[in-house]
Amino acid sequence: MRHTGRTYAVTGADSGIGAATVDLLRRDGATVIACGTGDHVDVRADLTTRSGRKALVAAVRRLAPRLHGVATGAGTGAATPDGVRLNYFGTVEVLDGLHGPLAETGGRAVAVTSASALSHGDATIVDSCLSGNEDHAVQAARIAVDRRRGGAVYRSTKIAVNRWVRRSAPTWAETGVTINAVAPGVVDTETARRTILADPIAARVVAEALPQPLGFPGPPEAVAEAISWLLSPTDGFTTGQVVFVDGGADATLRGDEPYADGVRYGPVATARMLWWTVAGRLRRR
Fold first, then answer.
1. Residue 8 has pLDDT above 70, yes or no
2. Which of 186, 87, 202, 209 is nearest to 141 (CA)?
3. Is residue 244 within a helix (H) or strand (E), and if so which, with residue range?
4. Domains in the chain: how many in total?
5. Residue 277 resides in a domain
6. Over the stretch 235-283, which tens digit does the pLDDT of each residue have?
7. Confidence class of residue 213 from pLDDT cuts 50, 70 and 90?
8. What is the 3-state secondary structure (H, E, C) of 149-167?
9. Residue 46: which residues within 8 A CB-CB, separation 6 or more?
10. CA-to-CA distance for 35 and 46, rounded, in angstroms?
């Protein structure tokens, strides 16, 4: 088995993609330090806080004399400032904090982002995240929510993580550590069933914005397989990549064009999304 004798830390291990990744790695022979906020994890930590991030890093360092990989699956789709705190800063501070142990083993790091990053984000949120200014990024998220642009918070944090991974890869490579991002489409997790998939109107809007010809929603196990491969000792020559495990959304939206700054929807797709958005608002009145 590929992962026998190796030790990994996985955040967001309580459910969804994180839980699927933990299960897969353990079945494949790995020792996994499951990190989350629930009762059935090895390390409990609130990554929306700086103290929680430091506590998680310290606990993983204590539990793993040798650490071979980290996957950051913790995240929230809630349109609140906690999205900034958890999705971006809870990801990059944990990865930065565990870079030292990974460098000792020539390890692997994988950040779970989102195919929603294909769309345009809020430039202020993205830039504030990448500059490391958490307070400014949180304030920008509050402004976006107040202006009824809360949906941009989630994808903006994921855009920022993708860019941080790309920027970090060359210097991390100098220490022998690979770092990549896996960007899932909409997959059948408990969170998705409770939010997007629970509302037929919201599901139609998202399916228009993120078309997945291989199926909507997709299986979380497929995302876990991609993470497992990027963490494995057999993959030592891939770094700085954003791997879309999205049922074909990236290819459908971008075709063969290079990605610069958000996809542009045609008039038909835009009209459909507008129609379903208005229909949803009218239904909720």
1. yes
2. 87
3. strand 242-245
4. 1
5. no
6. 999 999 999 999 999 999 988 876 666 766 677 666 666 666 666 666 6
7. very high
8. CCHHHHHHHHHHHHHHHHH
9. 37, 52
10. 10
Largest CA distance in the chain: 58
Report which secondary-structure segment, H or E, holds 194.
helix 190-194
**pTM as predicted:** 0.91
What residues make up the domain containing 128?
A: 7-188+216-262
Kindly state whether residue 271 falls inside one of the protein's structural domains. no
10 Å CB burial of residue 272 (0-12, 13-18, 19+) is middle
My answer on whether omega of the bond before 211 falls inside 30° of 0, hence cis, is no
* Residue 226, both tokens: 């991609």
| 112 assigned to some structural domain | yes
Token pair belonging to 278: 């208005």
Q: How far is CA 128 from the centre of its chain?
A: 18
Tell me: pLDDT of 119 over 70.
yes
Is residue 242 domain-resident?
yes
